[in-house]
């Protein structure tokens, strides 16, 4: 069963629009970590954020922000004022002790930002 | 600090052959994990090595194997290649594994014909 669901396969926005990428996860562990990675066309996965299950505070880093809600098992990612350079595939991932800490990735959301 | 490096970047092999991919982690990182990325299955965990020992293994057949050297460099080997093994193979390193942040290399694009 898919443990991390990214329901949006592709999103297309015009530059300067805000966009939110959804991530829903499933776990029985009480301690777990959630991650977001960016994969530009070059192929290399770029680490964006790591959040543990005990820290539900939202986080902001420049134009990026993350909203973690345990009640809905969601860890959504918002890009404010999107730019063409944000075009990439974004992956949400779950790490659990019960799975040996391996990253369990969602299928990814392909974001296209057009001028 | 140099990032994770993987060699070669591209490979073309014939069905039935075997292949060895190499990964050099970030200096000081002792954990190396391997992932396979395909359009159909997405990103899937292969295995993790720490201090030359395989610590975790994903759900892949025994044709997929790996090892880690004393300098933390890692290799993965795929024997008796099948067409379905065509994929991007990504290596990730972290300080000690566990919940540590994993940093990925550029990947090796393997094409099996």
Structure explained in plain terms:
- The complex is a heterodimer of chains A (115) and B (113).
- With 115 residues, chain A is an all-beta fold.
- Chain A contains no helices and 12 strands.
- Chain A has strands at 4-5, 10-14, 19-21, 24-25, 32-39, 46-52, 59-61, 64-69, 74-79, 88-96, 103-105, 109-114.
- Chain A is globular and about 45 Å long.
- The model of chain A has no long low-confidence stretch (mean pLDDT 94).
- Chain B is an all-beta fold and 113 residues long.
- Chain B has strands at 5-7, 10-13, 19-24, 31-38, 42-50, 53-57, 64-68, 74-78, 87-94, 103-104, 108-112.
- The interface between A and B is medium-sized, with 23 and 24 residues.
SS class of chain A: mainly beta
> Percent of residues of chain B in beta strands?
over 45%
Count of alpha/pi helices of chain A: 0
Content of β-strand of chain A: over 45%
N-to-C terminal Cα separation of chain B, in Å? 37 Å
Strand count of chain A? 12
In short:
By secondary structure, chain A is mainly β.
Topology summary:
The complex is a heterodimer of chains A (115) and B (113).
Chain A: E1 4-5, E2 10-14, E3 19-21, E4 24-25, E5 32-39, E6 46-52, E7 59-61, E8 64-69, E9 74-79, E10 88-96, E11 103-105, E12 109-114
Parallel strand pairs in A: 2-12
Antiparallel strand pairs in A: 1-4, 3-9, 5-6, 5-10, 7-8, 8-9, 10-11, 10-12
Chain B: E1 5-7, E2 10-13, E3 19-24, E4 31-38, E5 42-50, E6 53-57, E7 64-68, E8 74-78, E9 87-94, E10 103-104, E11 108-112
Parallel strand pairs in B: 2-11
Antiparallel strand pairs in B: 1-3, 3-8, 4-5, 4-9, 5-6, 7-8, 9-10, 9-11
Based on the model shown, name its key terms:
heterodimer; A: 115 residues; mainly beta; six-stranded mixed β-sheet; four-stranded antiparallel β-sheet; 12 strands; 0% helix; B: 113 residues; seven-stranded mixed β-sheet; 53% strand
